[in-house]
Amino acid sequence: MRGGLGALLGCLAVVTTGCVGIPVDGPIVEAGTTVGSGEGLALYNDPPSPSPGAPPTDIVKGFLDAQTAIPLQTNTAEEFLTTEEAATWQPELRTITYAGASLPQGSNRVSIELDGANQIDPRGSWLGPLPRDAQELGFTMEREDGEWRIADAPDALVVPESWFSQAYRRVSLHYLDPTASILVPEPVFVPRGDQLGSSLVDALLKGPRGRLAQVQRSAIPAGLELDLSVSLTEDGIGEVNLIGGVSMPTDEDAALMVAQIARTLSQDSAYTGFRVDIDGEPVTLSSGLTTFPMDQGDALDPAAPQATSLVFGLREGRLVSGTPGALEPTTGPMGTEVQDIRSVGVNLTGARVAGVTTDGARVLLSEVRTPDAGVTEIVRGGTDLLPPVWDFADRLWLVNRTATGARVSVYDDEHGLQEVPFRGVTGEDISQFLVSRDGSRLVAVLDRPRGDRVLVSRIRYNARGRAVGGTRAREIAWDDQTRPRVLDISWSSPTSIVVAHRLTGDLHQVRTMTVDGASAGLSGLAATVQERPRSLVSSPRATDPVYVATRSGLLDVLSGSLVAPPDPELTFLTYVGG
Fold this sequence. Notes:
mainly beta; Neuraminidase; about 10% helix
């Protein structure tokens, strides 16, 4: 994130492992790395049909095995069901993954006990652990034509986690913030293979639901469905044919709809462009364009295309900026005069800066490069204010650590300062926090004696873009270890963070975690550190390096190279946003 510099980094071993686990594509990139449509699958599986005379336990085992067919299909699994149950079974309602399972037990009623079970909704969104009381699955058995068959099966695809990690891939669906000013990525899992484009569009059409209603919206008219699949011409143009009997969107909504589809579909590199039809009528932009390039949504990039890649810091109490090896004082008041500040947050364009005073009680606001700009006090009477954070809309986010727990506030020029309630964060002992550049997520570290918890909450807004609260915070799971002591957090993509934490003994680790909390094993960035790192400097843009600040200088985590020598006077360093 940003913080005091120090702690010698004795040894850095960077690995991007592929351990069995829920799949997360490469380090420091947005979920949904570009791949080809013909990416292929890591395995082929054609499970057998029921054997004549098989006992109930074998039928249940065969039913579970049949759900792991690749290419994906459930026709074989349905052969293990009674005729009536096969007609009503709905495996598309959710997916249950499990790390292990007991052997089937019973006769007329067969049960299995799942271990390490998680669930995923119909759109592919991670829902987290299956409740403990739901991890025993029961199957009612009946005789049909002299053979045992399942008469009552869970409406879910129930598969091993190891299989799921090979058969599905992680991508992002792209919706809009409530003001339709920026795209908001939503990580989901879709099947790998030749129909990736169709899976992406089909999932996107399901739209945001439930608790996300005030977090994001879609410009795609409700009720539309994909007509069969997205076809691909020889020159790479996708034909997105939608049906649903809805009115053609307005020019403004058509442009937003195309941006959503472009950004989502661009995760499949087989596409060079695409067209969209609604009930046979082509979607046409106001410019007359009917075939759209894959970069059509880039202007609404959730990593914020207007954001500068300069880093900013404090040297001897003055604001500096530039590249890591060439930081120079800025020309605004905080760069030319000592303002008695301990941390700063710079807005995405690098024009405005907010500073927290050394006593943690006040927040000062000024211009970065305007010499005669004033310095405005926007907060006074704080207790222990954490480093400030900006989002794309020039909203400034603040967390004040009070005697009764954390208080989250947001400031903008129109509405001034307002407190925003976050269930699970407000009133808790929060040591660090982040807000995504698209303004849709708040990530916080909950300080606990037996191990810290990393929480994520979705930020809700009204139609005018004013924050009204957060959804109940959910924990991002540490899937391969108990909760460790978190030293720092920062963004590594619009849908993932990088975390520095204690590993064991004198060892520490810098690693990525996904904001939806999906278990990922050690897939992604995992750098082992022999000494205690106290500061991370990274951003959600893939082209921005990830740095660890050390007593020996600033280290590029991915390359392991030292990019700046020690600077004892440099006390704080960050990218824009925070």
